[in-house]
Amino acid sequence: MVQTTVSLIKADVGSYVGHNRVHPDLIAKANESLQKAKDENLLIDFYVTNCGDDLELIMTHSKSIENPEIHKLAFDTFMECADIAKSLKLYGAGQDMLKTAFSGNIKGMGPGVCEIAFEERKSEPIICFMADKTEPGAWNLPLFRIFADPFSTAGLIIDTKLHEGFTFEVHDVIENKKIRFKCPAEMYDLLAFIGTPHRYCIKSITRNSDDEIAAVSSTDRLSLIAGKYVGKDDPAMIVRAQSGFPAVGEVLEPFALPFMVAGAMRGSHHFPMMPVGHKDAHPTRFDGPPRVIALGFQLNNGKLGKSVDCFDDPSFDRARQKCNEIADYIRKHGPFEPHRLPESEMEYTTLPQIMKKFEKRFEDIK
Ligand code: F6R
Ligand code: MG
Ligand code: MG
After folding, report:
1. How far apart are the C-alpha atoms of 124 and 7, rounded to whole Å?
2. Ligand 1 test: best mutation among 223, 265, 273, most atoms within 8 Å of CB?
3. In total, how many domains does the chain have?
4. Which pLDDT does position 180 carry in this prediction?
5. Predicted TM-score (pTM) above 0.90
6. ∠322-145-175 over CA atoms, to 5°?
């Protein structure tokens, strides 16, 4: 059985101006590094891109997930790019490289990791989603709607191959535990958890009829690794589409709603998610609104072929317009919740340092 693996590994290793976008010199360096790996037959194919200030390495190979050679390639590439970022005095140069000595697996070192391995079908459409200025739990709402909500995905009702539903693996990123929910039977139980997206994140989804993998996401939380705020854990995910999985249009549909996510300014605010083509994936207003891009590939024995920039489409204009309206509205709340995140989620931001100053001034209320 020949398996194709898609590894989407990303990191913010420096950006300009401020946290806006990846410098072209970093993109060029990453392309050079991955081309070398392709020439040496480590990779089958690759695509380098960015979403805002995050450098995204999409790599295909036949070595399955968590392969040390592939992880080292990503790690070395990020380190080389971080060096260039430092030489250019880019903002946050080397930011996500929390650990600088590689020891076999890039997970837990800072970068976000999202990998999927499968036997390619007769035709294998996949969509790589990448977001900036938000957190891994931001995928919870769209993933639920794609794989469990019949009001969004018509195929759940009318396609026999989807009708048995999907199973969601959810990670508790605070307690480091995982649990699986089989939908539709356990749909309400699933929602009881994933409605708390900063803690419970959908990690992967499999099809009930044959346990085939359908989607994977990155769930890495920088602040939990570093113990302090170092930037948001801008997430990535890979979704398989068509012929027994939701159609491409069903996979994209949930993004027509600019749903509210944690992110934007100082990783401390709620702001609506804006689906954009790659040319618009650079959050400027209030370090937001958070952006999501979707690149579609038609895999051919591991070759990525031409990509489709799925949100570069006028049918998402209304979502973008609505997103701006919601941003105007919620911005007017200034430092008040629910624009600012609740206190419990501000633990890893810079706010606790401010509050500490006043600890001694609090008196008991008699
Ligand atoms: C968002 C993000 C930015 C920064 C903000 C302040 O994920 O990282 O919003 O938090 O630009 O950055 P500093 O504190 O580096 O000036
Ligand atoms: Mg940055
Ligand atoms: Mg980012």
Report:
1. 16
2. 265
3. 2
4. 98
5. yes
6. 105
